[in-house]
Amino acid sequence: MGVKIEESWSKVLSDEFEKDYFKQLIAFVKDEYKSQTIYPKGKDIFRAFDACSFDDVKVVILGQDPYHGPGQANGLCFSVHEGIPFPPSLVNIFKEIKNDLGRDIPPNGSLERWANQGVLLLNATLTVRAHQAGSHQKKGWEQFTDSVITHLAKSKKEIVYILWGSYAQKKAAIVSPTDNLVLKSPHPSPLSAHRGFFGGSHFSKANTYLESKGVQPIDW
User: Fold this and answer.
1) What is the distance between the alpha carbons of residues 59 and 208, in angstroms, rounded to a whole number?
2) d(CA 97, CA 73)
3) What confidence score (pLDDT) does residue 2 get?
4) Catalytic residue among 31, 65, 104, 219
């Protein structure tokens, strides 16, 4: 298929790229980029993998769709490029980190520094039409990202899975809660954050778990 993706992931997912559903998905996505405004930029579709190799994954944070506003989506779930105003969910994530760990809200919304420490920032759907949330759901991306989680679950233990919202939590069925730490809460969206995302302390819980396994914690 000629999918450009980081080498360790390319080895793990090579069979997936040859499946009919994936070929149909890529054909659909290419057509969409030709005829519509699609986010993120094509070079950033697989950025979550490029920024965090298979071998380095310590934590998985699962989002739903990329941001669908201009200039927001950058291939890492919940993240935006430097200079882009924080979307509401990201504002709430930083508020919770401040409440949980006492960290000041950072000057920009790029989460690449998390990815570089072993946090896989994966959306369930990797592309979206401008201003149309969910527009690329049920086209094959979910099957692909299910496969990503399945490969991780089979090959690696003692990973922290952070699942915010019911959409992300559906992926929990793939993961063994005895071999890993699975953290669930409502989504950080302003619509739901006050129902248990705030006060969930997922960032400190993740680090406590990693340290208990002798793994370097994340500098959130």
Assistant:
1) 12
2) 21
3) 56
4) 65
Predicted model pTM? 0.96
Q: Cα separation of 207 and 201, whole Å?
A: 10
Reply yes or no on whether 56 is catalytic: no
What DSSP line would sit under the chain, residue for residue? ------HHHHHHHHHHHTSHHHHHHHHHHHHHHHHS-EES-GGGTTHHHHHS-GGG--EEEEESS---STTT--SSTT---TTSPPPHHHHHHHHHHHHHH-PPPPSS---HHHHTTTEEEEESS--EETTBTTTTTTSSHHHHHHHHHHHHHHH--S-EEEEESHHHHGGGGGS-TTTSEEEEE--SSTTTGGGTTTT--HHHHHHHHHHHTT-PPP--
| Rounded percentage of the chain residues whose pLDDT exceeds 90 | 95
Task: Flag the least confident range among 11-20, 51-60, 162-171.
Answer: 162-171
